[in-house]
Every structure is written in C-alpha cells, then in structure tokens.
Amino acid sequence: MTTPKFPDNFLWGGATAANQLEGAYNEGGRGLSVQDVMPNGLMSAPTPEPTEENLKLEGIDFYHRYPEDIALMAEMGFKVFRISIAWSRIFPNGDDAQPNEEGLQFYDDLFDELHKHGMEPLVTLSHYEPPLNLARKYRGWIDRDVIAFFEKYARTVFERYQNKVKYWLTFNEVNSIISAPANGAIFEDEIEVSLADKWQAAHHQLVASALATKIAKEINPDMQVGCMVISMPTYSMTPDPKDQLAVRDFMNENYAFTDIHARGVYPGYLKRHLREAGIEIKFGEQDARILKENTVDFISFSYYVSLVQAHNPQNYQTAAGNIFRGIPNPYLEASEWGWQIDPIGLRLVLNDFWDRYQLPLFIVENGLGAKDELIADGADSFTVADDYRIDYLKAHLQQVGEAIEDGVELLGYTSWGPIDLVSMSTAQMSKRYGFIYVDRDDNGQGSLNRYKKHSFHWYKEVIETNGASLYNN
C-alpha cells in the first residue's frame, strides 16, 4: 500500500453561497432574490414578502465583514475560495436594461481581496438565488425568455471579471430542479407545476449553461467553465435485479445533467424516460447545436450522503438526503440531521465520474452539519471542540486521496461552509459546517463575532502538508 499523494497544484479551500452569508439584502442596489422570501429552507413555501424570521436577510454579514473573513481563510492557507455572485446585485430584477454598478464594484473589491491573499476565486453564477422578479413575472425558468436574461448577466460578469476569475460554475446543483423547483425560480404549488414544466425549465437552464460557456470562451479562452451537480452514490437494497434497475433509474436521472453538460446531447435513457412520461421538451431551433458545441471544461459536484434504492420503496422507511431521499443504509451512521455518512461513497463518485467522462473533476461541497458548542479557550477567547467534524473530513479526504491514486484527475476540494452560515436545507444557523464559529443563533441573536474551532487548525495543517497530515497517526 502506498500513501496517497495530492497533486502539487491541488486547490484546497472552502465553498459558500451569497444568499447564505452576504446579508445586506436591501443594500448596494440589490434587488430581492427568491431566497429572501424562503425563511424555512429550499423545500419550503415562500412568503409574500421578506420577513424578520428569514436569517438569510442578514446572513453572517459577510457583505460588510469579508476582509476579516478572507484573512481567516488565508490564515488556513486557502488556495481557492468558492463564492456565488448574487444575480440580483447585478441585475436587481433580472430583466433590467442596465446592470447595477454598485453590485459589480462589490465583487470587484471582493476578488481583489482574494487575490491580495493569493486565493483563486471559484465563482458560481446562480446558486439557488435567481431574482425574485423572474419568479413572479415569468414563472422562472419555465419561461424561455429567462435564457436571454441569464445570457446578459453572464456576459456582463464575464467581461467585468475576465482577468480576475479563472474558474466558473454555471448553476449550483443543476440536477436539483426536478425535486426542488425553487432552484429554477418556480414558486407555484406542485399541483400547478407539472413534471413537464420542470423538465422544460431544466432544459432552459441547460441551454443557458451552454451559452454561458460559449460566451466565456469568446471573452477569454483561458477561463474554465464547469457544471455543478449533486452527487449521490446509490446502493441496491438487495441483489434482486429489480432493485438493481431501481438504482440505475435513480442514478440516470442525475447522470442526465452531467451527460448533457459533458457530451452535449440528451442520452437515450432520458429520451425514453421523457417519452414514457408523456413529456416533450420544446427545443429552440439552435438548442441542439448550442448544447453540442459548448460542453464544459470540468465537472464539479457536492457530496454529502449516499442512498439505498429498491423497486418497492414503499416497503421501507425513508432516509433524509440532500434534496433526494432514499432508504436508510444499515451499515452507515447518520448526522444529527439524518444524513448518512459514507466516506467510501466519495471515492466511488470520483471514479464513476472520471471513468464516465474523462474530464477534470472538482469537489466543491463536502462537510458535516452539526450543533457546535462554543466553549472558553483562555481568558478572552472561545473555541469549539469539533473533533467529530475533523473525523468526518479526515475520513472523506483519505478516500479522495485513494481516488487520486486510482488515477482520477482532481482539480481541488472546497469544504462546504468553511465559516458558519445559514443552512440552505433548513435555514438554520444551528446546523453548522464551518471551521470558524459565527456567534448567531436560530433566532437571529448574537454578536456575529468569529471564533476559530479546533478544525480550523486541523485543516490548516492539511493544507500546509498538501494532505500528508491526513495519514499521520
């Protein structure tokens, strides 16, 4: 057995989303986003207007405190920091004639701060935060007009930041839109939104993603554009071939999005699935060509859990997952929120994606949400003894090293939520992921002071040793 070695240019860092940490929802010319009326998480019903209970309105005040936070990331040695641009900071209504200069300048300053500390920005164009006006006026991504609005937004930020940002992602967890239509700014009741509507919205996002890739290459061929999907390895409940087929069907619905991004065509299994569901995607005249000619440079993904599937799921209880659900795996433990912990699943995902596409991969989300307890660390300081988080991340990163030894080409790893932020799935502060504790609770109370957890120092050593410390006893 050889000790795995991470590439010399491996991009270590962390990942965030604008709507979960920026705050300042009504400052700097920013318009409302769909997240501003979703106080209870991604799968919840929206409210008519923003309400005080929505912790995302203030987030962790990154908008005003980002120099302090970036300095902490730099202290850990980050090579890359994943953020998203809040679309409604650039085009407050989504369909505006001109961009908001104050919003553009904010990200100019943010990228400059990252570069000052030697960090590459990894930027998501749309991270579950389309402008609210697009949901109310256009039915979100169901309406084809939204493609043109996204195209204009992408061109604006690509031109502005072409010399400051090398790595771009188009849509966060793009394969979530069927299960979580709010990702596509679709707010109607499930009764009103048909499966055909959801797939049409997904098609529009896929075309928009390809167009963004095309625009980026026209502006600066050195820019690298990737897709971003939820990865969720799925095991068969039994050796019954029917269960094996259930696994294949579940996996195909997720693979469809990476297949289209990486290969540029709708796969045969998806065409059959849509046909048998009575769904006919309305293609624009140039859509097929746009998809085929503008495939991604790399594939990025989130990884938190694995699932189990069976052909008769009604005979089993359901387990929680990151948007998708399945059957509990009796061989795995679960987090406080019921997400099953499977480090080996990450190695499987990496090998599956690499074998399938032979494109560079990027793990852009992975982490453990837990209830942390702030404790005294000397007379005037506090910390969190989060050895459970260290154990989780160490086990996962060891499997990443194994995948690299398997031959997988991996660009980097950005842990989810390197600083505590508002949870996307539950909209809580108490579901904490960070190496840095933020003093704010589920009622919005707290000083917003930042404190280094034990995992802060652990991750710093991992980066300093380029992963070698993962294999120390």
From TrEMBL:
One of its GO terms (biological process) is carbohydrate catabolic process. InterPro entries: GH, GH_1_N_CS, Glyco_hydro_1, Glyco_hydro_1_AS. Keywords: Glycosidase, Hydrolase. GO terms for cellular component: cytosol. The active site is at E365. It comes from the Bacteria. GO terms for molecular function: beta-glucosidase activity. PROSITE patterns: GLYCOSYL_HYDROL_F1_1, GLYCOSYL_HYDROL_F1_2. Signal peptide: none annotated. Pfam families: Glyco_hydro_1. Belongs to the glycosyl hydrolase 1 family. This is Family 1 glycosylhydrolase. The lineage of its organism: Bacteria, Bacillati, Bacillota, Bacilli, Lactobacillales.
